[in-house]
Design goal:
alpha/beta, 4-stranded antiparallel sheet, disordered N terminus
């Protein structure tokens, strides 16, 4: 595939991120938060129940210091029997109401938070399945996985937990302040000194917290990417003694994550003590003034204790409110990352036509193509015609444009110049679903899933295929013989990427999948390149059965596998330099003949 140029450019296009994670643009916190709250809106009834429970809980908090005044003045000082009997009952009622309200609030918030996570993850995964191939060329899979797994959990706190805590603790603070004004408005005015000072501290720290959180999101994505590579390529790592190299890569990023976590903790840690110091300083001043009033008999002991209790109870909600800043900034940084993915443009599905039956008449006219960040064209003025039921083989050196050309047929990449016609219809006029329904693909890099043999053959739109059809497809692909020897036959799990199968067995399952699809257009991209002679014989037999009565595009480096093709197209540097059948091209004694003789000599005598 001629992608070396655009892949290299893609790496350099992200200088601040070695693995290609998109750098999130700055968006205002209010815009992010309002967009985030849209995911809460469908569950507003449950959320409202949580809010009501929260209001009830907040209302009971000032009731505790309010109860302190009659308890001290009425029960202990005046020894009023009414208050002696009533205070314990009221105390039990207040605590019971608090417990019930707190429980309802917790359940409602947890339910809504998990629904938000569920919805966002579903939407992100849906978007991932709709993204064009170019997105995956420029974004490491580990980073995408990190956004769906790690970032979403950070967002859930900002969308529900933070909001609930913000409202709950704010109501608690307002309720306590209201009681304090009722108890002693002069002393309460002094407490308002703390408000503006706390606001300045919080604003000063908010920007740093958000920047650190954003850096942490990116670093977690990079670390996930390295971890995924080390696991999936474990054999390559072992055979090339890359363990130490991978450990160093992981250690560097792991250390960076550690440093960012420490910086976040330090920044958040500074926030709390500063606010606490301010609050305690004001509290100390108020206690001193209130004590002087009490000594001068200007206030009762009960009033004094109730006021001090209310002020002391302010300490916890104020502390929680200031600590919300860290979680909020983490959530907003995660939201920015998530919305960047959700805002990616999906595949262009501008076609409106549907075709039910296709003969397989394939025509390529003046097609020129360049990858987005490449410095030269991958294809240059390609013209090609493959009649229905014929086989066309694309040959040439690596980077000549063969895979790029076949990737344009199912519109994995969008045409820039020229057009491709299927049964006389421009493929851009067809919906993606209608186009791809008529194309089957078997590539060198077989994609299998950690599922049963049957599920891998009858994949996707074919999942409702009958067992008889699946068995017939496996038989046509010469796969039934090894499937029947497996412990559970068609119901045997094949492991991640088919790790429990040999290379030839994986290829035959891929061929069986294509046989079952029964598409009129078939693309074979180096389907036998990595196989030994014994496996190739079985796979080649399956391919011959698959090619029958289908329009087939074959990419092959082994020219012995394309000798029977109706048309052989020799490509070089994105251009077609020769066309013809095997016999004609050998007689022409040009590029194809030279390449064929070189391969024949290598097979006969071995490499020099």
């Amino acid at each position: 595939m001629n992608k070396s140029d655009h892949s290299a450019d893609a790496t350099s296009a992200t200088p601040n991120n070695s693995t290609g994670r998109a750098v999130v643009a700055d968006v205002s916190a209010s815009e992010l938060y309002m967009r985030l709250l849209r995911y809460v809106r469908p569950y507003w009834k449950t959320f409202a129940i949580g809010l009501i429970a929260m209001v009830v809980y907040a209302a009971t908090v000032p009731a505790m210091p309010a109860l302190l005044k009659p308890m001290i003045d009425g029960s202990f000082v005046a020894k009023d029997p009414t208050w002696i009997q009533l205070v314990p009952i009221l105390l039990i009622v207040i605590v019971a109401v608090q417990g019930i309200a707190g429980f309802v609030r917790t359940v409602a918030v947890t339910w809504v938070a998990n629904r938000v996570i569920f919805d966002i993850r579903n939407e992100m995964f849906r978007r991932v399945t709709e993204l064009p191939t170019t997105f995956f060329d420029h974004n490491a899979s580990g980073n995408v996985i990190s956004r769906i797994t790690y970032d979403v959990t950070q967002v859930s706190m900002a969308s529900t937990t933070v909001l609930i805590s913000l409202v709950s603790d704010s109501l608690t603070v307002l309720g306590l302040l209201g009681y304090m004004f009722y108890a002693n408005w002069k002393l309460s005015l002094v407490s308002f000194v703390v408000g503006p000072v706390i606001a300045l501290v919080v604003l000063a720290i908010a920007n740093r917290l958000r920047r650190l959180s954003r850096d942490l999101q990116n670093s977690m994505g990079d670390m996930t990417h390295i971890l995924e590579e080390a696991i999936s390529a474990n054999k390559v790592v072992k055979i090339f003694q890359g363990e130490e190299y991978e450990r160093r890569r992981f250690q560097v990023l792991n250390n960076w994550v550690r440093r960012l976590e420490v910086k976040l903790s330090i920044t958040s840690g500074i926030n709390g003590p500063l606010v606490q110091l301010i609050v305690v300083s004001v509290l100390a001043g108020i206690v001193y003034i209130a004590a002087l009033d009490s000594a001068a008999n200007k206030t009762s002991l009960g009033s004094f204790m109730a006021f001090i209790a209310a002020m002391a109870m302010l300490f916890s909600p104020v502390k929680r409110l200031t600590s919300l800043n860290e979680r909020l900034q983490r959530g907003l940084a995660a939201a920015a990352s998530i919305f960047t993915l959700l805002d990616e443009k999906i595949e262009q599905n501008t076609g409106t036509r549907h075709i039910e039956h296709v003969k397989g008449d394939l025509r390529v006219e003046d097609v020129t193509f360049r990858y987005p960040t490449a410095s030269r064209n991958a294809l240059e003025k390609i013209n090609l015609y493959v009649p229905p039921g014929h086989t066309c083989a694309l040959v040439g050196a690596s980077g000549s444009g063969k895979t790029t050309l076949v990737n344009l047929i199912p519109r994995f990449y969008e045409l820039q110049e020229g057009r491709i016609l299927l049964d006389g219809i421009d493929i851009r006029e067809l919906t993606l679903d209608s186009l791809r329904r008529h194309i089957a693909l078997v590539s060198q890099d077989v994609v299998l899933f950690n599922d049963t043999v049957a599920a891998n053959i009858a994949y996707g739109a074919m999942q409702d295929a009958s067992e008889e059809d699946i068995v017939n497809a496996a038989r046509a692909a010469h796969a039934l013989e090894f499937i029947e020897q497996m412990p559970q036959g068609m119901r045997t799990l094949i492991g991640e990427r088919g790790v429990r199968l040999s290379g030839g067995q994986r290829q035959r399952l891929a061929i069986a999948r294509a046989v079952l699809k029964n598409a009129p257009v078939l693309i074979l991209d180096e389907a036998t390149a990595a196989l030994d002679t014994h496996s190739e014989r079985y796979v080649q037999a399956g391919i011959e059965a698959l090619r029958r009565n289908r329009t087939t595009i074959v990419i092959a480096h082994r020219l012995s596998t394309v000798e029977k093709a109706d048309l052989i197209v020799m490509m070089d540097s994105g251009r077609i330099i020769e066309t013809g059948n095997h016999h004609d091209l050998l007689e022409r004694n040009a590029a194809y003949a030279s390449l064929y003789r070189a391969q024949f000599a290598t097979q006969k005598h071995g490499p020099a």
